[in-house]
Amino acid sequence: MKVARYRDRLAAAGATAVFVVHDEPAAVRAAMLAGVDAPFPVGVDLDRRAYRAWGLRRAPWWRIWLDPRVYARYAGLLVRGERLRRGGRDLLQLGGDFVVAGDGRVVYARPQERDDRPPVLELLRAVEATS
Questions:
Q1: What pLDDT score was predicted for residue 55?
Q2: How many domains does the chain have?
Q3: Residue 32: which residues within 8 A CB-CB, separation 6 or more?
Q4: Is 81 exposed, middle or buried (CB count within 10 Å of its CB: 0-12, 13-18, 19+)?
Q5: Could you write out the three-class secondary structure of 91-111?
Q6: Distance between CA 77 and CA 98 in Å, rounded?
């Protein structure tokens, strides 16, 4: 959980990270959070209402499973010694990254296209620009 490294900067900006997942809590603890320091809230959205509200869609299977960049990314993680985590119940559900200012304005929005999360520092700059 790369964002945990920036916990102090988030706190200094009066912010926190919130993670929303669409799997059963027990599965999230056993697979995604096993051995991970997760100092931020993790919300569970089994029926994916939040995903729909934020415009997060499911990818067509071919965009994920036939994209060589996805395999290259995971190969790079393995080479760096990172442990791959088991996927959730819907591997085609795309996520997104958002920064919401204290007044409720969305000041950063990036829906996911595949396994292409933005760098944490990009999100942090958006957070710090609102404080």
A1: 92
A2: 1
A3: 21, 23, 85, 86, 88
A4: exposed
A5: CCECCEEEEECCCCCEEEEEE
A6: 24
Q: What sign results for the dihedral spanned by CA atoms 59, 65, 70, 74?
A: positive
Q: Beta-strand (E) ranges in 1-131?
A: 19-21, 42-44, 96-100, 106-111
Q: Are 46 and 24 in contact (CB under 8 A)?
A: yes
Euclidean distance between the first and the last CA atom of the chain, given in angstroms as a whole number: 24
Q: What pTM does this model have?
A: 0.74
Share of the chain above pLDDT 90, in %: 18
Residues 118, 49, 14, 98, Cα dihedral to 10°: 20
Domain residues for 37? 2-130
Cα distance between residue 103 and residue 130, in whole Å: 10
**Which residue in the block uniquely carries the two structure tokens 């395999």?**
71
